[in-house]
Structure formats: C-alpha cells, structure tokens
Amino acid sequence: MSIAAFIRDAVLRERVREHAVMVVYDQHRRYRDICRSIADETVAVVDASESSIESREAAARAFAAIGRRGAGPKELLIYVPARPPLTDEDRQTDPFSVYAACGAVFPSGDGDDYQSLCLKAKPDDATEIRRLFEQDPSPSFELIDNIGGGLRWPTLRTLLQAESSRELLLALLVPSSKQAQALQANDSWADEARDLLRAAVGLKLITRGKTWASIADELWRFLLFSEFALDLPTELPAALADVPRAPEAARPLLEDLCDALRRDPLTRPTYVERAEAVETELDLPRHCQELDDLGIRDTFPFEERIILARAVQALEADRLDEVRAILDRHRDSVWIGKGESQAQWGLLEAAMRLVEACDDAERDLAGHARGMEHLIDWYIGSLRETDRCQREFEQLATDIVTPDDAMTSVIRHGRRRYGVVTTKIATRFTRHLEETGWPPPGRLANADVFDRLLQPLLKESGRRVAYILVDALRYELGVALHKELAETEQTELLAACAQMPTVTPVGMASLLPNAGGGLSLKREGDAFVPVLDGVRLAQVGQRMDFLRSRFGDRFAEMPLAEFNKAKDAVPAAVDLLVLRTNEIDSHLENSADTALTLIPKMLKQIRMAVHRLKERGFADVVIATDHGFFLNTHAEAGDLCTKPPGDWINVHDRSLLGDGAGDAGSFVVAAEKVGIRGDFHCFAGPRSMAPYRRGLLYFHGGASLQEAVVPVLAIRLRQDKQPDLTKATVSLLYKNGAKRITTRLPVVEILVETADMFSLAADLEILLEAHDRKGNVVGEAKPGGPVNAATGTVAVKPGQRQQVALRMDPDYEGKFTLKALNPVTMTAYATLDLETDYAV
Predict the structure, then answer these.
(1) Helix or strand or coil: residue 317?
(2) What mean pLDDT do residues 796-803 have?
(3) Above 60 in pLDDT, residue 785?
C-alpha cells in the first residue's frame, strides 16, 4: 500500500466515518489530492483552497444536508490549507473551527504528524524512514514509497514463521525450539539475515560465520550495547567509542526489543545471561566508572548498582521525590529480580517510606500534641504508621547480612531520622503525663479489659470465650492483625492504656478480673510484686491459678503454640480458654537485631488459633497484651539517661519506683496519678526514649506511646458457613523449571488462575514456606515488596504472575519442598520440589 493510500484509507476515511464531520488543516498542502479523492456519494468534500467565501457556503450547505434523511452525503470533510488554530483567539477568527468542534480535526496530536504516519504505514522500514527524515524533513510520497518494497527476506519469514522485522529479530535473538531447528537445518537464510540486520538496526555483521550461534552472539552484543549507548546522556568513554552501535534512528525498535526480552518470563533468563556476558566482555564497569549518569534504562547489571547508589545519595540529601522516581522507574527492572538486589532495593524503599512517615509526623506534631487526648488520638489514627514503617525497615535491614557502604548509609539515615522524631514526641508525651496522669479519663484501661469485655460474655450460659494473651503486641502490630482477621471475622480493634510500669508481671496481672480496682504493687526488698485481691502474681503459673480459682472447671489454659498442635478437643465444660504466648517479647529481649523476622510467624500462629477456636465451637475471642515496645536501634554511645536523685527501684531500665525528685532528664509523678497503688509514692522515667542502661536495642517498661498504648481485639466468630467462591489454581515456578537454587535469596514466581467469575477481582492470600523432609521450615518469603512484613503473606491477583524472593535458612542445605499455603488453614495450594546448590 502506498503512503497516500494508507493516509486516505487508514486515517482520513476511517476518522471521518467515525465522527461524520472532520476538518483537515494542511499548511504544507500535502494532503489536498488525498482529501479530494475521498469524495463520493456518502462523503462531501469541501476544498477551501480556492475561495474562502464559496467554501464557507459550501460547508454550511453540506453540513445541513448530512442531517437530512434520504439520499445524499452523510459525512463531511473540509480541507483547509492553513495551520490548525492553536488558541481560542485563533479559533474565533477561523470560520471552520465550528465544524471541528462538532466533529474531529486532523492533525490531532503527535501521532498525526507526517513522519509518524509514514512509520505507521511501513513499520518494517522504521529505521530507514527516520534516517530519511533526518536528511529531509518533508520527503515526497514517492521517496517514502520507494523505501523497502516487495516481500523481503522470504527465506527468513518462511523458516521462522514470522512477518515483521521485529518478529524476525526476536526470533534470531531467542528462537523457539522449532525455529532453532529450522535455522540449524541449513544456512540459506544467513545472507538475508545480514540484509535484515543492516536495514532494520544498522548492524553490519563482522562475523563470516553462517551459523545461528555466531550471528546471535554479534547481534546480542550490538543490541545491548546500542541500547546502553543511546540512553547515555554523555559521551561514551574513549575505550568504548569504536564499539559498533546502532544509529539514533533505530533507537525505538532497539528499546522495544530489549523491553520485550526483559518483560517475558520465558526470555528473561536468556537476557540476563547475555547481558552479564556482554558486560564482562566489554569490561563496562571499569570503563564507565567515572560516569555519574548512565541514563534511565539499566541494560546491564552494573548500571543497577550505580543507579542504586544515586538513589541512596538522594535519600541522604532528603530528595525523596528523586528517590521515588528512581524506585518507580526501576521497580520492574530485570536486575532487581535477583534476590540480593531485591533485598537492597527493598531496604531503600522501606527507608524512603520511613523518612516520609517521620517527615509527616514532625510536620503534624504541633497540631496534635496540645494535650494527652490529642496525642493518643493522633497515635492510634496515623502516627502509629511511623512505628510500622520502622519495624518493616528494621526487618529488611536484618536481611542485609554484610551491608556495603551504600546500605550502611541507608540504615544509618533511616534510624537517625526515626530517632529524632520519636524523641520529640516522647518529650511531649511525658510532659502531658506529668500534667494529667495516666490513664486519661474515659479511655479504656488494660486493667478494665477483663471486666468490660469478657465478664459479660461469660455470664451467658454455654457461651465459650477464648482469651489470647500476647506478650509485647505493639499497637501497630495489632492494626496489622486486625486487618487480617477482619477479612473473615467480625473484629473490633480497641486502643487501651497499659498499666504502669509497662512490664510483663504488671501488665499481665492487669488483664485479670477486678484488676482495675484491686491490683497493687508491693515492695519486697529491692524488687516489687503485683498483688491482686491479696494474691501474689509474679509468675505466669500464679496468674493462671488465680483464674482457675475464680472459674474452676469452666477454665482451661495452655500455650498458644501447643493449642495449634493439639488434636484433642477442649473439654465441653470449658467456657474460658486462655491461650498465652511470650514469643515476641522473649525473642526481642534475647536477640533484638534478628528477632523481628519472627513476628510474621507469631501473627500467623494467632490467626491459626482463631481459626481452630472457631472450629471448636468458641463464639468470641479477645486478644490483649501487657505492653508495647520500642526498637532502640538508632541509639548511639551517648544515648543514656542518668537516674534522678532519690531512693529508687529500677524497673526494666526504663522506669523507677520509690521516692525522689525529677530533673532535666527524668520526670517524677505521684504513683497514684499514673494508676499505681501500693507501697510506692512516686513513679519516674526518662523524658526521652533513652533508657537508664546502655546497649538496649529493645525495651519497654517506661512511659511512651509505643510502650503504653496497646491494642485489644474483640472478635465475634461467625459460625455460619460462608460460601467459598475462590476456586483458584496456584502454580509455583523457579527459573523456567530449574530444580536447584544457587543463592540463599532465590526468586520464585507465583501464578494464580481461577475459573470462578465471582472471585476474579479478589486477591488470593498465600503463605510461602520451604519445608525439609521432616516438615521443619527452612525458608520463607522475604518481607518487603509484595510480601506483607507483618504477616509474611503475599496477595496475588488472579491471572497475574508475582515474583517473590525467598529467604533460606543460612545453615540449611539439601532437598526441600516449597509450599504455597492457605495462611489460615495451612492447607497447600501448590508445592514445588527443589534442592540447594550453593557455590562454596
């Protein structure tokens, strides 16, 4: 098809048919004959070239006629040999703009310029067309028609079963097995391939070989280096100046080919292998080490390192928009698909979110810190997101086993920013604590949770209630747990005020019956003990015995992990079942720098327990905690608070009980003012987030929002059977079928397909775990990116592939089974048998 015929039939005629009225503006008088040739019994064409007055009258008559029934034109095209009106003033003086407003105008947008139309007409000759326009901005139709011509490269088209130049090039780069066999059968296609490469991308093959391997090697090097060179904002280093590369005119086709190769899961591994080989062959990292800006396309793996370093520099300079732009641009980079790189980019993104949250908190502090009530409302409403971002950031920081300078800078910057903001907020909190006391009037206190939430339920005959006591469930973790549970159960999240001092013996005792009126602290030498109704409650066994004395056979208790494993049903007489866990607190106390990775497992255990309670006939579940916690990872050598003068008992290095006076570093209030009854007159603590002892990465016990505002979840279990509309098929894939992993951070793909029309819009939540032959967990999804850092699960949309990095146990080697599990029931959607093959 000639270019004139293409413009007439595929552009103008189609557009006037769609809009009925169209004005063609043509200041270069290029399209006049084409427009006139469109005229027939259905299309009226008005040519404004000869007489302006007569053409206006003709346009008015034709416009009026196309609305009438019967014979005559139904469409109107007006040809105007002038530039189109660009402003409102231009349109007011143009007599034909009213017709354009009623229908369409040509040209409309960059896609209608002459060069774009030629490229659309002859996509196989795009490079030659661009080269022609560089020499002549307005080539004639004859010149365009003379480009190419005839059915070119017939042997290649036949062997490869491909038509366009793009399809032929892709087949030469990554042939299918059938295409590879055809290319190997004979070399009759080689000369055509040379012509194709010269015409399409400007590659003059150096190799004299006629085999696919020799030609593909040169084509891959040319393709990848050309994309890199064309994207480079500066001159190439002298050592690379003579490496063959494509002209600028071939850039769109080359970039399209590279994007297609990186995007397709089937060709991505080949792309990675080829790019790594070319990078090594050309020694690009050494030759390009002086370049600061490598453009926006990361063709080679070394570019990803440089771009990451640039993003880190922007983060340190608080240029968050630049960081966000880099992250968005490289989110789907083929190089981020590597587990180690994914971990570093994930940490960078988490640091950016943390800094953004800290910036928001610092900006909003003055407006929300006028009083204790405002401060608590702010915390439970949005400020707790700062803590969530910090926890997720610290979880990802533990994945960086040996941080380089860039990651060390990211970790330091995120921690410092969080430390500055939380110190400012803590100072406001302790100031209000001194003024108004604790808990604020009208707020739910932990000491009233049992009496207000559980006692009324237990008065109903036969109503079974579970009470899950979780040690150190920070408020933001309660929010994450609530989101998960609310998907299947009627769940209410409440904010409660923890009992001071915020330590386990006091906090757990405050969750017992009548604690609001009867709990007190008795002094025993240099220590204290909680006492409720005359009963000492220093140990977990004493607290459980206290409940047993109140409820008798109606009461039972056990560790939460034991309940999840037990096969025996809870005795029918039991109306109150207490499940307890101290794993979060215990692990953080003993190994705060690595224990954060266990938090998703703990929340998973709670969800499993709720599911099993429902199966066993329980109607209600209340989840409560003794205190929150603070991650003190930003602390430096001087971050220490000195105890104020007085006679004090040190409580967990964050609070004091006894007598004394406050100073610049510590507040002191009357014990009764903060809800403490018993043998102590005063309660004291640091005004900041510093403890009374060095080296604490994790602490609680003091007075801060993170330690003293805690979640309570009240769950009404739905006993009616809900229809399961999600009939999903889950597939797991590792490197196109590979069975051995060579890194401890392998990346796997999850594909979810569903035949259920009702669940097409719903994501499927999946828990990924690697199990050895004995069922031990030896690997799990690495938090960050698509993986929920609190629950360890990943949500996958039906019909989409999701890449997920696994974090393998560093000490495990051997065979294992990767399982895609239902996070509630732990049933397997899919499994994949793999084996480690680490390079030593």
Answers:
(1) coil
(2) 83
(3) yes
Q: Using the predicted structure, report yes or no on whether residue 125 has a pLDDT greater than 90.
A: no
**Integer Cα distance of 813 and 764 in angstroms:** 30
Burial tier of 782 (Cβ tally within 10 Å: 0-12, 13-18, 19+) = buried
The domain limits of the chain are: 3-108, 151-288, 311-436, 446-633+710-716, 728-836
Neighbours of 299 (CB within 10 A): 28
CA–CA dist 553, 573 (Å, integer): 7
Give the angle 292-296-301 at the CA atoms, nearest 5°.
75
Tell me the CB-side half-sphere exposure of residue 509, using CA atoms within 13 A: 26
Q: How far apart are CA 809 and CA 790, in angstroms?
A: 19
Tokens of residue 331, six digits: 């989110």
Residue 722, pLDDT score: 38
Handedness of CA 196, 201, 204, 210 (dihedral sign): negative
Lowest mean pLDDT among 428-437, 588-597, 759-768, 794-803: 759-768
Residue reference for tokens 């998907």: 487
pTM: 0.73
Average pLDDT of the chain, as a whole number: 90
β-bridge mates for residue 768, sequence order: 820
State which fold the 728-836 domain adopts: Immunoglobulin-like (2.60.40)
* pLDDT for 337 beyond 70: yes
Taking the C-alpha atoms of residue 576 and residue 497, their distance in angstroms, rounded to an integer, is: 24
Distance separating alpha carbons of residues 119 and 131, to the nearest angstrom? 12
* Rounded Cα gap, residues 435 and 443, in angstroms: 16
Instruction: Encode 574-583: b = buried (16+ Cβ within 10 Å), e = exposed.
Output: bbbbbbbbbb
3-state SS track over 352-396: HHHHHHHHHHHHHHHHHCCCHHHHHHHHHHHHHHHHHHHHHHHHH
Cα radius of gyration rounded to whole Å, the chain: 36
Q: Taking each helix axis from N to C terminus, what angle separates 251-263 and 212-231, rounded to the nearest 10 degrees?
A: 110
Cα dihedral 111→114→117→118 (10° resolution): -140
Specify the 3-state DSSP secondary structure of 752: strand
Q: What is the DSSP string of 548-575?
A: HHHHGGGEEEEEHHHHHH--SPPPTT--
